[in-house]
Write a structure and sequence with these properties.
Shape: globular
Distance between the termini: 19 Å
Structural class: alpha/beta
Number of strands: 7
Length: 216
């Protein structure tokens, strides 16, 4: 197992992009909690593209709770129609181009390119089209459609941060708790599998697809 330790963990800039409220928390909340403890100063730009009404409020409040250790946070919520991202391609693309002019991240967290949800796939596509000289890590979202693959990048997550992630999801997204899949067992189970795959000391991890990584 190859482990890379960055030399400079000060003033790290993260860009986190999610299609819907709760996507980012499902995909990388454990990693955010770990990095905010391990790294001395982190700036986070947190973008949710479909977060309207109560879902927008949930997204903003959850992000602020999750990222409270960050040196600086900017939470952006947009109102693109859930499930219709391909039909709104031009407007979403314009938003990505504007974002590129405003932020210069060290690491970008985004959806997986092969995700079976059309909104997720479009976000991944536009992330790669827009940010062509950045480290991009694609997180995974469990869903009815299936489609989970074999990620290549792992972040071990402590049991404390595992519990924090699950509590954040269950507390922060009351609008989703009626869905049968939205349950602690779902999130714990996936992180247990990824923990096995990377031999995490805690037994838990989050995993990402790292499609293009340059070691300088």
């Amino acid at each position: 197992m190859l482990t890379l330790q960055p030399r400079n963990t000060r003033n790290v800039k993260l860009l986190c992009i999610g299609a819907h409220a709760d996507d980012l928390e499902i995909g990388c909340a454990g990693t955010m909690l770990e990095l905010l403890v391990r790294w001395s100063s982190v700036d986070v730009t947190w973008v949710v593209l479909s977060a309207v009404g109560p879902r927008g409020q949930e997204a903003r409040e959850s992000a602020r709770r999750l990222l409270r250790r960050a040196q600086r946070i900017e939470v952006r919520t947009e109102s693109f129609r859930d499930g219709y991202f391909p039909a709104q391609y031009s407007a979403i693309k314009d938003g990505f181009e504007a974002l590129k002019r405003q932020v210069s991240p060290d690491i970008i967290f985004t959806h997986a390119r092969d995700d079976l949800h059309q909104d997720h796939r479009l976000v991944a596509e536009l992330t790669w089209n827009t940010f062509r000289d950045h480290l991009i890590l694609e997180y995974e979202i469990p869903k009815y459609d299936g489609g989970l693959g074999s990620p290549s990048v792992f972040v071990p997550v402590s049991t404390v941060n595992l519990r924090r992630k699950v509590a954040l999801l269950m507390r922060g997204f009351a609008s989703q708790r009626s869905k049968r899949w939205f349950a602690p067992e779902t999130f714990i189970g996936l992180m247990r599998i990824r923990g096995i795959e990377c031999n995490s000391p805690s037994g838990y991890a989050e995993a990402f697809h790292g499609r293009k990584i340059v070691i300088a």
